[in-house]
Amino acid sequence: METLEQTNKSFETKSRTFIYDGSFNGFLTAVFIGFEQKMSHADIQPNTSVQNGLFTETETIFTNLEKAKRVWNGVKNRSSTAIKNIYFAFLSEQKGIEPLLYCYIQKLMQCTENNTSNFTDDCILKINQLAHKVGREKHRMEAFVRFQLTKDDVYFAIIEPDFNVLPLVSKHFRSRYADQQWIIYDAKRNYGLYFNLEAVEIVNLDLQNTFANSIHENTAFKSEEYDYQQLWNNYFQSTNIKSRINKKLHTQHVPKRYWKYLSEKKVS
Amino acid sequence: MDYFHNMDYFHKFGIYTTIMNFERTKEKLHILADAAKYDVSCSSSGSNRSNKNKGLGNSTGMGICHSYTEDGRCVSLLKILLTNHCIFDCAYCVTRKSNDIKRAAFKIQEVVDLTINFYRRNYIEGLFLSSGIFKSPDFTMERLIAVAKKLREEENFNGYIHLKSIPGASDELMYEAGLYADRLSVNIEIPTISGLKLLAPDKKHEDFLKPMFKVKNEIIRYTSEKKIIRSTPKYAPAGQSTQMIVGATGESDKDIMYSATHFYKKYNMKRVYYSGYVPVANDSRLPAIGTQVPMLRENRLYQTDWLLRFYGFSVNELLNDTHPNLDITVDPKLSWALRNLNLFPVNINTSDRQMLARIPGVGMRSVHKIIKARTFRNLNWEHLKKIGVALNRAKYFILCDSQDWERKDLEAEQIKGLILKTSSGKFRNQYSSQLSLFN
Question: Number of CB pairs < 8 Å for A and B?
Fold first, then answer.
């Protein structure tokens, strides 16, 4: 009898879909509700790309900071690696990441010992690898951001990262460029960070012009900006040793999709 | 913005001077970056300088490579010479006295401006400043220090600074250099004393060692004083490094690695760099211009260096009188394993960390994962593959939770043949005896 009840239960829960607002706190709220209702699987989807099954029942999740915080703290008390992995993997924005993360959190909470390093478990390994990928993208953005100085003394950069890493790089740039105003704008996700010498705020801009590294100069920038770009470009050429050329290694380190905003890769 | 405010702004960002001499600066940068590129060190890691009082920049333990040149090398620091005027005539060096090339020299302010403006645009992690030796070693060292001092004290710059220790510079100057620089380095260049006599007759071996020794002692002094007085000023927090040229004087891999080990042990080097010699002179003592750069050999030396520093190997296991040179066709760990088949197979589920690290195709990252994962269950081939072990090499050397054991009774030569057959090395065309038809 008991087993039947269990199967029934899981059948019921399987066909329920949680729709959340796409924010990390929204996701954590959904996890909270999933746990509250003792769901063994949770089909959690962001409201931007909902795919309904024919007979699925959908439930809209309203972000609740209190509930989100409880999940955050619950996971963090178990393992600080886990909370980092979850946040990083979440920012990968991969389709279907939410149910996988739900399963990860479940496994973490079920176990008395810390099983975040059980690399024989597919779900744990997968989250680990995704978090690693996002971490690499974060590191790349710390390297590949190229600021251009605007006429109103703001250092301005555009990026188009594979994953949503802007929240992760904020601290790095804030502590590094504490005495200059800067904007890093994610053109793919259409939001940016603006540091006003005091704090970082989120901005949405209406970018009319393209600011890619074309040879066309943009009037938004100071004229000496282009002098420095030229100096940097020349430096980049001079420091290359021609008899050691290795283009394959070069593109492996600087994949072509990033060239668009790199001033040393300016196309003439 | 009023006029004075404006001028203030220009001074603050150093734009004023640079605009005035833009074309000249461009030419100097070209000459002096070109001359500095043979120094392979580009590391910007290992330091710890935080941004205080809203200054500019910070350096954390992790370095950042902001770009890569077309030869695949990392661009992390603005790497330039202060000048390429030099009173020495070292045969292997492009800025040697007798070489007929354009000479140039940066003003101190020019280097400061370039560094600050590149840094603010997130092009670089900091400055790598070297120099030809003009007038005297001390005179040159003083100029290098002046740049670093200005960056730290006037520009409130907390980015990374790597200064060259000029061979023969006085102890007082080496002490001062360490107060502003994150890393100091002096390039030994030629791994053997006889080679140095041949190629750089006016330089003395001791001149290289003296600044190295001073820096080492200062770092030791700093670490011990720091424990008592917390405010002891930082001294070269990222340590010191050196570089050796490979393939210029006919030295063996054993010569190179034994002398590298000596520097690691005796001088607490953070890094020893190996630089495949790029022919820059028509000199009968050296490989002719146009000779191929020994990049594969360089690669094998770095692999050996890593095995020594991170994998617990000692140098005489990898190189000794019977094996004075590394095997070019396979990596040094595999080569060692093939000579020591009696130590294998290793059981993945029971062996200790040290032995796991010695399995070909298993890196330190995999070792870590294996040790963590095997506490949950015994690992099989599938698990190892997913973890990221290079099974094409590793499978001949391990036992795991499976009936299959790949090596069976294969001989070393057979294993090597099988591995080479099933893998594609990036330098394979350089040593393949098979003629390729179309290139």
Answer: 153
